[in-house]
Design a protein that fits this description.
- The chain is α/β, with parallel strands linked by helices.
- Helices cover about 20% and strands about 40% of the residues.
- The protein contains five helices and 16 strands.
- It has a 16-stranded mixed beta sheet that branches.
- Helix 1 runs parallel beside helix 3.
- The two termini are about 30 Å apart.
- The chain binds NADP nicotinamide-adenine-dinucleotide phosphate and manganese (II) ion (MN).
- The site of NADP nicotinamide-adenine-dinucleotide phosphate (NAP) has 18 residues, from helix 2 and helix 4.
């Protein structure tokens, strides 16, 4: 999408370390000459910190997700969800002032359980570190498998480079609307069998996780942790909600991958 909208207000979500705080003060000083700081109703949300800060930003503005556009400036090592490095903050200011942006949209996952409904930019995980978690997996109400092990992870394309990647899942280009189910230490032998490999599904699928007991298990939603009720029923699908990211410079997905993982 090529953005036609004019950005008038902004807010900053800042990692609470000294470098990020100092950088966000410098940014504010520059941005206040042509934008208005409005924490409640910003057009632009600037995330200053790491990928974790971007996750936090998206969750903070989830109720305004259709109206807000996100952009990240990185203060740590190289970030995957951030387009600007710390020493490029004046370039970011100039780019916002010039206003020639594109908006790209990223699907969120939607998960419902007894506690309520949550949205994830990276992934939803059911994890149990106290005992083997046994759960039945249904895809569109059709029984698929019974999983035993530490847990299962459903990731978005954005999240495919995060936890999912550590689980041996595939990296998926972020322009797709796919979700990926990966196992966390699945138990596989003659008595217990589940798919083992990661499974890629799309927007037409809902995954349901059912168990005799979720005792000791947690539902991880990006950086959030939710306690599961013993007889919980968990449904995960691609949401119609999307997070909108501002783009001023064209960093290809290939380039992003190389920068973050291949050191070139
Ligand atoms: P964190 O412990 O700081 O995150 C772990 C690492 O994942 C950090 O280096 C973080 O980058 C990076 N990361 C987050 N989202 C990413 C993405 N979409 N692509 C590539 N790297 C990404 O915790 P956090 O900052 O609150 O982030 C929560 C996320 O951490 C979860 O959603 C999960 O994906 C990930 N995580 C991964 C593992 C694992 O790989 N074993 C374990 C727990 C959590 P920054 O340092 O820039 O924040
Ligand atoms: Mn982090």
């Amino acid at each position: 999408i090529i953005g036609g909208e004019v950005m008038k207000t902004y807010a900053i979500v800042c990692k609470q370390d000294q470098e990020s705080i100092t950088l966000s003060e410098k940014l504010k000083e520059q941005l206040n000459t042509f934008l208005t700081y409005n924490e409640k109703e910003p057009d632009i949300v600037i995330s200053v910190g790491g990928d974790g800060t971007m996750l936090y930003s998206v969750h903070k503005y989830i109720d305004a997700i259709d109206r807000v556009a996100f952009i990240g400036i990185h203060t740590g090592t190289l970030g995957f969800l951030t387009d600007y490095q710390r020493d490029e903050y004046l370039q970011l200011v100039l780019d916002i002032q010039n206003g020639q942006h594109r908006i790209y949209e990223r699907h969120l996952l939607e998960v419902s359980c007894l506690e309520g409904t949550y949205f994830a930019l990276n992934e939803v995980r059911i994890e149990n570190n106290r005992r083997s978690q046994v759960m039945d997996v249904y895809i569109n109400d059709e029984y698929f498998e019974t999983f035993r092990g530490n847990g299962l992870c459903v990731s978005t394309p954005v999240g495919s480079t995060a936890y999912n990647k550590s689980l041996g899942g595939a990296v998926i280009n972020t322009c797709t609307g796919l979700m990926q189910l990966s196992e966390i230490a699945g138990i596989h032998h003659n008595a217990y069998r589940s798919l083992g490999s990661s499974l890629i599904l799309d927007q037409s699928h809902t995954i349901r996780f059912q168990s005799q007991s979720y005792q000791g298990a947690i539902l991880g939603v990006d950086h959030l942790v939710i306690d599961l009720k013993d007889k919980d029923c968990i449904c995960v699908k691609m949401s119609s909600k999307k997070a909108r990211f501002l783009q001023y410079r064209n960093v290809s997905f290939t380039q992003r991958l190389k920068r973050a993982y291949l050191n070139s």
